Amino acid sequence: MHGAPCIMVQLVEDCKSLVKSNSRTLEEISSQEHDALVQKWAGCGLTIVSLLTENLLCHPFIVLRRQCQVHYSSWNYRLEPLSIIPVTIRLLRRQQASSLWKGVGSVLIVRGMTLAVEDVVSKFSPLSKEWTTASVTAFGQHLLLKCLSLAVTCPFYSASLVETVQSDIASERPGIFDVFRDGLCRILVWGSPQQGRMLPVWVLIVPTVVLGLLRYLINILVHKLSYAVITDYQDKQHTRWGAIPKNSDTDSEIEVTAGFTALVVSDVLLPIRICRLHLQGTRTIIDNLDTGYSVLPILTSYRGAVDCYHTIVGEEGRAGLYKGC
């Protein structure tokens, strides 16, 4: 009995010596391996921060921007970033801060559905989720997959859009799964004649797919161009100084910078939005961002995407395409 503690102590000491003999300490790791490990974890951290920023932190700005876009009779287009601050403060005085994150659940659900559709279709067809080769055929198949995912999720995107712009004061807060119910309702009336002002899904699919594909192409082009410019600049800096500077950006940092640049450029080059088409006839009531105190209904009667574009340009001017930017 008295020998048991001694045996345990000896066993622990043996384990420690075994670990020390079969592993290298941090001091034995070369500086290059250490830097590579740090860059790897930094890249993972940047990826996580980027996802959180895109899906959660940016959502209030998406909500405010969409409310500006669908307000067809607004006199303040909110083209300057700081112009939205006073009305947002007035809005928050009357509503909870959570109103800026309304619809975030449905937005994440629609994005998840998009990824799921692409994953399932790519497994049972030659269409690829990723474009990794220079083949024109492979790129065409990749774009076709994007078109299919946009078309399939279009009804649910319409339902999600309603949740992100409707006023919390004048509307009941939707449940987390209401986006499925409302999306399925739009699908069930696919072949039915148009009821009231609401446009059938088949009228919305074509402009949704076309604009989504154009935005994706612009995003890819600008992203690759930005990445090439940044890496080329860094290579020139390395050649000039004869070594890699300590403050040199990692691949993950370059990816984040290129992605942000692509997002901004795509919004500037392609300001066209069809939010009003998706909301037409849904009896949605939004907050009036001209004042921040009142609400108003969405009452439009567009016949389609082309009519929507010409009406906006004719009545609101070309600046009307950039509302909320």
UniProtKB/TrEMBL annotation:
Instruction: Outline the Solcar repeats, range by range.
Output: 250-325
Q: How does it sit in the membrane?
A: Multi-pass membrane protein
Which keywords does this Swiss-Prot/TrEMBL entry list? Membrane, Mitochondrion, Mitochondrion outer membrane, Repeat, Transmembrane, Transmembrane helix, Transport
Biological process annotations from GO: mitochondrial membrane fission
The leader peptide range reads none
Which top-rank group of organisms is this from?
Eukaryota
Name the residues that span the membrane: 199-218
Q: Which PROSITE patterns match?
A: SOLCAR
Q: Which GO terms describe its cellular component?
A: mitochondrial outer membrane
**Compartments where found:** Mitochondrion outer membrane
Among InterPro entries, the record links this protein to:
MCP_dom_sf, MCP_transmembrane, SLC25A46
Q: Which family does it belong to?
A: Belongs to the mitochondrial carrier (TC 2.A.29) family.
Report the protein name in the record: Solute carrier family 25 member 46
Provenance organism: Diaphorina citri (Asian citrus psyllid)
Q: Which gene encodes it?
A: LOC103515946
